[in-house]
Amino acid sequence: xxxxxxxxxxxxxxxxxxxxxxxxxxxxxxxxxxxxLPFVRTEFVVMACDDELYSPKALSMAIAxxxxxxDHVACVG
Length: 77
Prior knowledge:
Layout: E1 2-5, E2 20-23, H1 29-36, H2 56-68
Parallel strand pairs: 1-2
């Protein structure tokens, strides 16, 4: 998991396995997303904001769609 924190003060997250924490308060939202890209090591990425809910079934369906539809690069909704 990659956390890109845009808040004014960094969070105390400690050392957690599989977590990369980036505090980038001076960057715009788009710049923070770009800052995270070098850390992505997986085939798929979810941009998960802290105020949204994600259904495991919906995520599985999105991955299945992307695997079958190679002319698409993203799923929304």
